[in-house]
Design goal:
Layout lengths: L6 H11 L16 H19 L3 H6 L3 E2 L4 E2 L2 H12 L18 H14 L1 H20 L2 H12 L3 E6 L15 E4 L5 E11 L8 E10 L9 E7 L1 E3 L5 E4 L2 E6 L10 E6 L6 E4 L6 H37 L22 H32 L4 H33 L10 H8 L9 H10 L8 H15 L7 H26 L3 H5 L2 H28 L5 H21 L2 H10 L14
Parallel strand pairs: 3-6, 4-6
Antiparallel strand pairs: 1-2, 4-5, 5-11, 5-12, 6-7, 7-12, 8-9, 10-11
Length: about 600
């Protein structure tokens, strides 16, 4: 049976690092306590283990098919969907009176981590549906909520977001899908959407597409984009189905990984019979969709972290049980081979994985804690800080989760490259995460070109305050040397940020943003190093006095991983900083004819 996560690690992060036990002090979560949180997590782990993990490889080998009329998935996908829905996870964060659990985002994300580790392609249908429902709940009309939310929450309907088009990619201001007003207040939708995950399947009665389109005569660019509910089947007010809504599957896309999730090309209005329902105000579509996109970006980060985490645990188990070779100082050819975990280079690869995936999970949980502080606690500063770090939450796990999977394959050697072990699938699945919901380059432009300077740099100041709070308590003899190293590199990041900010203010936009990807990676390394320093502090505080070997080993592992990341990974920012502050023009000046 696959191990999905180190439960001791998750509990430590939730209750010692991010203080989940204090969330019930917020009125919205007052009916919860540690016992209910743990019960929910146990339920999630059980469903993920019993209904999601067993068909992860099967869904990859037997990907969905389309016969020209009907999409077919393996039956285990629908069973898992129903288990997820029946347990209340589709509406876990919503109000009690909507059938939800009013679950904190922090706990909900921890529960989702089990599903992502178990089977990212099957759970994608659930996560997309929950995110689409969140948009309707936040911005939809009373009639729209009454019609669509209940069947989405109970699992009868699924949801998608239909943004991009065949010739548009990430440049959403260029979309061409049209919305033509009708006399009854609805809109006729006509156009084509591409790369729509979950765009068609056979697991639900209906699919609720959230579609970006331009109302007839609306201006070009993002200000002319509106958001519409476009169900596969027209839907009566009581949630029962009416006729087909002229939404047709043009074809399935065949992916490198994530094969269990359909990736579709959809045609809307081929027969001029496609009805859409405007959400909120015309021209505000991208603003509304960003709620779903930002949730998805944090979700992508979580997925990348957990696929990396799953690979780490698989390679760790293999290394502990695979005898091969001898310690280099042992020259006796008759000596018994040692398990490969005793070889230093294998330890290096496992340490790197541990630092990437546990650090990435901590980053995602930190983002979830900020959401709770803002949405349930009313803390606007937390919202500003979350907005700043969202590009990092999406991008760092997406960059380093696949690197962890690559190292996991290397630990297994030739075995890791075969389909008899799950690591090659983990790598293929994880390779999607750097691509969707905004590439690394797009996120870097968002961070360096916009997010840093909003609210008069308040988000950055809030981050630095939290970092300083950690440095102030890093007094233990085992942590202080790491804190001192960290501070040196922190100064580099601050100086680099100031230089780039000055250049942007002076109009050197192209030069300052040319190497923005380096800055995003730099900021990611800094935040992960800070989280490792914080985790090391919390581990020492919790386990120093413990006499249990397991506790002592856990603490030592946290200290060693923090040491690895701060000594081995964080110093890379010094080279990045030199390129950034010197406005290196190597990439900027390259001409297309020189390739």
């Amino acid at each position: 049976m696959a191990q999905l996560m180190n439960n001791k690690d998750l509990s430590f992060m939730l209750f010692d690092v991010f203080k989940a036990n204090e969330l019930n002090q917020m009125p919205r979560y007052s009916e919860h306590d540690v016992e209910t949180f743990n019960s929910i997590l146990e339920t999630a782990e059980g469903i993920a283990t019993d209904f999601f993990a067993p068909h992860n490889a099967k869904a990859d080998h037997q990907e969905p098919t389309f016969d020209g009329t009907q999409v077919s998935t393996i039956p285990e996908v629908k069973t898992a969907w129903q288990q997820f829905a029946n347990a209340g996870f589709l509406c876990a964060q919503h109000d009690y009176d909507l059938g939800g659990m009013q679950l904190p985002t922090l706990i909900n994300m921890a529960a989702n981590a089990y599903f992502m580790s178990a089977n990212p392609s099957t759970v994608a249908y659930s996560f997309l549906t929950a995110a689409a429902a969140n948009v309707i709940q936040a911005f939809g009309s009373t009639e729209q909520k009454n019609t669509f939310l209940a069947p989405m929450f109970n699992g009868r309907f699924s949801g998608t977001m239909a943004l991009t088009e065949p010739n548009v990619g990430s440049s959403l201001g260029d979309i061409t899908t049209k919305a033509i007003p009708q006399t009854d207040g609805t809109y006729f939708i006509k156009g084509q959407k591409m790369f729509i995950s979950g765009g068609d399947q056979d697991i639900t009665e209906n699919i609720v597409h959230l579609v970006l389109a331009r109302i007839q005569d609306a201006p070009q660019g993002v200000k002319g984009i509106s958001l519409f509910i476009v169900p596969k089947f027209k839907t009566h007010a009581d949630g029962t189905l009416a006729e087909h809504n002229d939404v047709h599957l043009a074809g399935l896309l065949h992916k490198m990984g994530y094969r269990g999730t359909t990736s579709t090309v959809l045609s809307f209005g081929e027969h001029d019979q496609c009805t859409g329902y405007l959400i909120g105000e015309a021209g505000s579509g991208l603003k509304y969709m960003f709620k779903m996109m930002n949730e998805a970006r944090v979700g992508v980060g979580l997925g990348a972290a957990m696929i990396g985490y799953r690979g780490y645990l698989e390679s760790l188990d293999y290394a502990k049980n695979r005898p091969q070779g001898r310690i280099v100082s042992d020259k006796d050819p008759a000596a018994k081979p040692v398990n490969i975990i005793q070889h230093t280079d294998v330890k290096r690869m496992l340490l790197a994985q541990k630092s990437y995936v546990e650090g990435s999970l901590a980053l995602c949980l930190f983002a979830a804690r900020l959401i709770d502080e803002h949405q349930a606690g009313g803390n606007e500063d937390s919202a500003i800080l979350l907005d700043l770090i969202t590009p990092v939450v999406k991008s760092f796990p997406s960059a380093y989760g696949p690197k962890a999977n690559d190292l996991a394959i290397q630990v297994l050697g030739g075995a890791g490259y075969t389909r008899e072990y799950p690591l090659e699938q983990c790598y293929r699945d994880n390779r999607l995460n750097p691509i969707h919901e905004g590439t690394f380059g797009i996120q870097s432009l968002d961070l360096l070109g916009r997010k840093l300077w909003q609210h008069n740099r308040k988000g950055l100041n809030l981050l630095m305050q939290r970092i300083q709070n950690t440095l102030d308590v890093s007094r233990d003899d085992r942590i202080q040397p790491l804190a001192q190293r960290f501070q040196q590199h922190l100064q580099t990041v601050q100086n680099t940020t100031n230089i780039l900010g000055k250049a942007l203010m002076q109009g050197q936009v192209d030069e300052a943003l040319a190497n923005s990807a380096l800055y995003l990676d730099m900021m990611g390394r800094l935040i992960i190093a800070w989280l490792w320093l914080d985790m090391a502090n919390k581990a020492v505080n919790k386990f120093s006095a413990s006499n249990h070997v397991e506790d002592q080993n856990f603490m030592a592992g946290k200290l060693q991983a923090a040491q690895y990341f701060i000594r081995w990974e964080l110093p890379e920012i010094e080279h990045q900083a030199k390129l950034l502050v010197n406005f290196d023009e190597t990439c900027l000046d390259m001409q297309q004819d020189w390739f």
